[in-house]
Design goal:
Elements (H helix, E strand, L loop, with lengths): L2 E4 L6 E3 L2 H6 L3 E3 L6 E3 L5 E2 L18 H13 L6 H6 L3 H9 L11 H9 L13 E2 L2 E2 L11 H16 L2 H12 L2 H25 L1 H7 L4 H11 L12 E10 L6 E10 L5 E2 L2 E7 L5 E7 L10 E2 L3 E10 L8 E7 L2
Antiparallel strand pairs: 1-2, 1-5, 3-4, 6-7, 8-9, 9-14, 10-13, 11-12, 11-15
Length: 338
């Protein structure tokens, strides 16, 4: 394969070497008119292809006076013979021999590619950094004498650095799982679990100390020691659902007047001894209006024991005196634990 190209300025056809085109990035200099152009644009094979058509470059328009003068001189002088016509009348081998085999041009200081690079290079020799905008390595605010770096840019840069330091997400997840599975972490978690379970048991024992001592008498000494430290007491449990009012009555007391006798019978239906409940007494007149209301404790009834034995009854009586002139016609009794 024999490569050749045509000069874009004068139309001269000459051979080229592919290795030289690679070194100069396709840029060559014409040996006839010294024009620098890209040989790759008009590259063809002499053995298979014909030379591409050449169109001379369009010259810029000249002034009117110079055009008239040039036309006058052309009419007066005969046209010189065109060497290109003689060249194109030759055969392909003679035409290439006449154009290519010329004295070689002396080496130049720069290759065509270096010349184009130097021509298009922009030099910023006068560029300088304004150090007055920086103070102690910190950017000034917009309200100062200079403009600093935006905080958002600094935050983004720090976030990127932090993300790069931590690594990808799957690496962080693996490290997190490995940390929780380490022997030290497992021992700490076991101790924390035991501490929480112990705290929960202690709170339950404190809250249900009365019921625990009644159901499991063997735990009573331990609960008593704990109450000595916490300043609490152990008594009979309170289970209002196991206590019922078997009967009650309100009648005038002997001697007349505004004195009344209240009788209440309580029954413990459970299997555990329970604390004696309080009694809520309401007195109403003939119209249903509330005359008096009072919460009565077991001590008001002067009971012998404040504990209601299992499967037993307890009868309580109390004398009441009313200062309200209205006549008491009805009453209501309810039991509760304060």
């Amino acid at each position: 394969m024999s490569l050749a190209t045509r000069c874009t300025s004068c139309g001269t056809v000459f051979r080229v070497v592919q290795d030289q085109l690679k070194v100069s990035e396709g840029w060559v200099r014409c040996g006839r008119c010294n024009e620098v152009f890209n040989a790759i644009e008009g590259l063809f094979d002499l053995e298979r292809d014909a030379p591409p058509n050449w169109k001379p470059p369009i010259a810029p328009p000249a002034p009117l006076a110079a055009t008239v003068s040039a036309a006058f001189e052309i009419q007066q002088q005969p046209e010189p013979p065109d060497d290109d016509d003689d060249v194109f009348q030759l055969s392909d081998g003679d035409r290439i021999h006449s154009r290519f085999f010329q004295p070689e041009q002396a080496d130049v200081e720069q290759t065509p590619a270096q010349a184009v690079k130097a021509r298009d290079r922009v030099d910023f020799a006068d560029a300088q950094f304004n150090t007055a905008l920086m103070s102690d390595g910190k950017p000034k605010s917009a309200a100062g004498k200079g403009t600093g770096i935006a905080r958002s840019s600094v935050k983004e840069a720090r976030a990127k650095q932090e993300a790069a330091r931590r690594g990808p997400g799957f690496v962080q997840q693996a490290k997190h799982r490995e940390r929780w599975r380490s022997p030290t972490m497992r021992v700490l978690l076991s101790l924390a679990s035991l501490l929480l379970v112990g705290t929960l048991v202690g709170q339950s024992a404190y809250h249900f100390r009365d019921l625990s001592a009644a159901q499991w008498p063997t735990t009573r000494p331990w609960l008593a020691k704990g109450c000595e430290l916490l300043g609490c007491q152990i008594g009979a449990p309170r289970r209002i659902d196991d206590v019922t009012v078997e009967s009650s009555g309100l009648s005038p007391a002997p001697g007349g007047g505004s004195n009344y006798r209240l009788a209440v019978v309580l029954r413990n239906r459970g299997a555990l001894p329970l604390t004696m409940p309080w009694v809520d007494l309401r007195l109403t007149d003939l119209s249903g209006q509330l005359v008096a209301r009072r919460a009565l404790s077991p001590s008001d009834f002067r009971v012998v024991s404040s504990v209601l034995a299992p499967e037993s009854e307890s009868s309580m009586q109390l004398l009441l005196s009313s200062t309200d002139p209205r006549r008491i016609s009805s009453y209501t009794v309810e039991i509760f634990y304060p």
